[in-house]
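Practice problem 4.
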């Protein structure tokens, strides 16, 4: 004799609760994304102000400095702030396929460190 399988019954309340949970996660993720974008824009504005006022070197000047030291193509640039100082990290793809990282003091333009050279 075959036994009838019992399928779980999903109630409207259970579906509504699950849907609300998903919507709350979507809204929270969107809010976090907006906060990240706002922070990124504020950092961009701060760097622009620092370059305009002469507190830090321009990106074009720093690029020339880095490429005079390491031959290759710049594939990525990041700026970091630590204790109100700006540091740039350049990633350069060399012709031999290696990626070299160069850390530069944003204020003085001095190369602080070259990794994987």
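Answer key:
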């Amino acid at each position: 004799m075959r036994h009838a399988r019992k399928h779980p019954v999903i109630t409207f309340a259970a579906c509504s609760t699950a849907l609300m949970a998903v919507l709350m996660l979507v809204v929270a993720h969107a809010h976090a994304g907006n906060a990240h974008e706002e922070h990124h824009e504020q950092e961009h504005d701060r760097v622009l102000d620092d370059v305009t006022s002469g507190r830090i070197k321009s990106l074009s000047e720093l690029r020339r400095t880095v490429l005079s030291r390491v031959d290759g193509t710049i594939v990525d640039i990041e700026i970091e702030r630590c204790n109100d100082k700006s540091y740039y990290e350049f990633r350069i793809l060399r012709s031999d396929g290696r990626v070299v990282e160069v850390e530069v003091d944003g204020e003085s333009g001095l190369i602080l460190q070259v990794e994987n050279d």
